[in-house]
Amino acid sequence: MLNSIKKIMFFLSLITVFAIGVLSASNTNNFFLTDQDFSAYFLNENLPVNYSLNLENGKERVDFALSSKHKFYSSLIELFQGKNPSTSFLSVNKKIKNNHLLLNFHLFTGLDFFSDKENKSYYFAYNGIKLNGSFNQNLKFNANFWKGHFTGNYEYAKKSSLLNSWYQSSDDHKKIYLDKVTAKIEFDSQFGVFAVGRGKFNLGNNIGGSIILSDVSNDYGYLSYQANFGEWYLNFLHASLIADSLSTFSDGKKFDEKNLVVHSIHRKNEKWHLFFGEEVIYGNRTIDFNYLLPQTIMRVTEHNLGDRDNIMIFFGYNWKLSKNIHHYFNFLFDELSKSKIFTDWWGNKYATQTGISITNILNKKNTDNLTFEFTAIRPWIYTHKFLVDKYSHDDNPLGFPDGANLIQYAMQYKLPFTKTINWINFVSYTRQGSVGNQFYINYESRPKDTATWLEGQITDKFKIKSVLGWNFLHRHNLRIGYQYLSEDNFATINEFSLSYKVFY
After folding, report:
1. Where are the beta strands (DSSP E) in 254-368?
2. pLDDT tens across 297-328, in order?
3. pLDDT, tens digit, for every residue of 64-96?
4. Separation of alpha carbons 453 and 435, rounded Å
5. Which of 77, 183, 230, 334 has its CA 20 to 30 A from that of 146?
6. Which residues neighbour 376 within 8 Å (Cβ) at sequence distance 6 or greater?
7. CA of residue 102 relative to chain centroid, distance
8. Residue 400 in contact with residue 211, Cβ under 8 Å?
9. What's 4-15 look like in SS3?
10. CB burial class (10 A; 0-12, 13-18, 19+) of residue 62?
């Protein structure tokens, strides 16, 4: 107990040093829905993008926190004010001939502390830069860069969810260094919205993770397009992935080509949101122009290319049953032969997810939200015979985070106590079989041509996740978290976390 108190006191001391030392200072995209996931790490969530600068009367103006001694002191004072700040480290509102440039530039820093039941702990300190702006209203851009390092228990730190891409350990294994960058340039024209960027996407409303396209992976580069036709709109995405199998060179790096394509059509009004689409992963070749045609049926295209790629079809809806009740449904399938749909044929690879969300249950003033979700996934759905085409990116799943061959019951409750204090709790119970349950398995190695629900050795998992967030002084954020995960009544995760972030 005494050691824990010492750790907390040390952490709070570091917070004070960081707050005084800073100069007044997870890019996730959603195709159509609000992601309800949450994390103990601030870095797993995207900083808000504000393309409109909050400047008086829209006058031309350039604000820089270091432009003068007076400006520096004013910025330092504003760092510790509770009101909504009107300035950033650098902001620009300028007319250049007949063009209008808006620019917002932020600095941010933070510190995370994690400790488990065995009294192991680690710290993660980071600094970053965030930029967003627009040019003539129709050209918008943003970027988010950060770098940091872990200290403390090395083996425990290596289990961090932030280590989902490149990282480097010090020679003495006392520190782990990593950095990340996300960015996007978006052009809004009369023909639609075109974008190029680096980030990740979430498809389908969920609380336990998307069965269609999950955002728990590392970021990736992409081209996207959206065309709007009243209540109807078309989405298209082509992304460059990192292969995590096949060719291995002397330095351990893997350089196989791997790509993701998603296209979908939507119809949305005040009560309904219907969607239908396809997604394909292909590899061992550069960009295939056959998959750059969003108006075609990609499954037919894939057949004509030799049936060598991994393609799936998805559909679903979001239905506003009443003012306070929202129901959603997601469905994903691969083979799903009509003649064998009610049999145990192994190729019946599909996943279904449904949930109901209720608002304003206890807290009428600050909207609370209670969500129940059920997810069922057949074996083998995220696997492929060509390992380069498995449903993954850089050794992370692109499908449901817990894998396949499972049934999961989940509940999440979000309670905003005030405008600045928010408490989110998540509980799930999962039963999972050992056959065909992970993306890295080659389905050619299946033991037989049949597959049953929860086939193999069954593992029961119980998860609790609770995060209390406090956005105090507007520029300062504090988050206290607890996470527990047991598998067959054996605790694999039991940790406490404390995170702090400040930005200017």
Report:
1. 258-268, 272-283, 310-320, 325-333, 350-359
2. 888 988 899 889 999 999 999 999 988 899 99
3. 888 888 888 888 888 887 676 667 888 888 888
4. 10
5. 77
6. 351, 352, 353, 406, 407, 408, 453
7. 27
8. yes
9. HHHHHHHHHHHH
10. exposed
> Which residue is listed with tokens 């193999």?
456
Residue 367 tokens, joined: 């909207």
**Global pTM?**
0.87
In one-letter notation, the amino acid at residue 168 is Q
Torsions phi, psi of 6, nearest 5? -60, -40
Q: What is the distance, to the nearest Å, from the Cα of residue 349 to the centroid of all Cα atoms in its chain?
A: 25
DSSP symbol at 386: S
User: Can you tell me whether residue 69 is helix, strand or coil?
Assistant: helix
DSSP H helical ranges for 96-168: 154-157
Confirm if 451 and 443 have CB atoms less than 8 A apart: no
Tokens representing residue 361 in the block: 């249950």
Query: At 99, which helix (H) or strand (E)?
Result: strand 99-116
Judge contact between 465 and 480, C-beta under 8 A. Answer: no
Residue 432: φ, ψ to 5°: -135, 135
Do residues 309 and 389 make contact, with C-beta atoms less than 8 angstroms apart?
yes
SS3 for 480? strand
The letter for the amino acid at 134 is S
The burial class, CB within 10 Å (0-12 / 13-18 / 19+), for 60 is exposed
Task: Write the DSSP symbol of residue 21.
Answer: H
- Which of 389, 385, 366, 371 minimizes the C-alpha distance to 241? 389
Q: How far is CA 448 from CA 121, 451, 452, in A?
A: 45, 8, 11
Query: Which residue is associated with the tokens 């009004």?
Result: 269
